[in-house]
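Anyone? Bumping this.
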Amino acid sequence: MSQALAREPAPRAKREIFGTPIFGPESAQKGYALNKMCFSFNSAAARAEFIRDEAAYCARYGLTAAQTEAILKRDLLKLLDQGGNAYYLAKFAGILGLNMQDIGALQTGMSVEQFKAKLLAARDS
Amino acid sequence: MATIIGGLAASHVPAIGGAMAKGLQQDPYWAPFFDGFNAPCRWLEAAKPDAAVVIYNDHGLNFFLDKMPTFAVGAAPEYRNDDEGWGIPVSAPFPGDAKLSWHIIETLVGDEFDPVTCQEMLVDHAFSLPMQLFFRDRAHSIPTVPVVVNTVQHPLPSLRRCFKLGQAIGRAIESYPEDMKVVVIGTGGLSHQLEGERAGFINTAFDRRCMDAMTGDIDGILGIDPHELVELAGSQGVEVMNWVAMRGALLGDVHELHRNYHLPISNTASGIMLLENRPKLARAA
Ligand SMILES: [Fe+2]
């Protein structure tokens, strides 16, 4: 079919998208240890071990000082800046007992109620 | 020969699993979502497909960044779910159709797609929840072929590439020499973004455009590059790639039989669609 043969557009310089980290080659390398630690949280035993001594667990996975500090402080925006990937960080959020509205509120500086209201308001958009 | 009788699409956020475990299907928050499955479930009960090909993305249960395939196809007799770390119950295993898997793999490679093949593969909520939502009591007895698309790490495959993958899967199923009925399911989306200062982003206009494109101007969305897709759909809204691949597999005349659009469920705009795939008249002649 002819449309299937249509040329892909030439790559353009990527624009910034407000408040939206793109998890690509740079973050994938920078955040590898951090994401690997979060991937380990699939295991209940790993989650328990992390809770027993968070800093020691971070050290075992080779997190940098900045990544470890961001974990200890639950600083999600910093974790993203340090190469964290949303899909793996969600497992860290699970350990903290936070749901996605709690996470959204933390990252946007809103209260949880404000964040839920923002989601609802999208209905009218 | 096998025939593809239809395509289905649904969102797949983990919170759905939590709601199911707590029996909240008729809770006012959840009912508008769960009720959206009644019509597709009735259709599936009547149509009685023999197998389901499920196109989804893994959220860090089976695949990690150490080895991250752009496309992967399961080729196992059975697929297990496991602890994903966010507290939703582990589901019972799902039967595979390894023979159909290998036929799809052979056809895809012959068609210049080169997926990773997996004789062992854990399936996460993006597979298990839509299977349970669409098939209910029969979710764990319908043979399946899981197909995984990378939505986790850029570079992501383009929508056009996903559509072509779907077309190749469609050709594979239609050349399968068993007399059986197959449905293709695409899961994920619609617009949502979990991370960053734009967390909570939802784009209803774009979601409607994608749903309309399933029976309308599909080519109009295939030119959207992955970066632009993040901008329009949100970082995880890119999962609509799985819908586009599902749509690609429907090679006949495609008719929309049902849609449900509701938001929010968790941080996500939820879309459910049932598409019927009727034989093209020209090809039937
Ligand atoms: Fe997802």
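Late reply, but here is one note on the structure posted above: Residues 116 and 122 of chain A are 10 Å apart (CA to CA).
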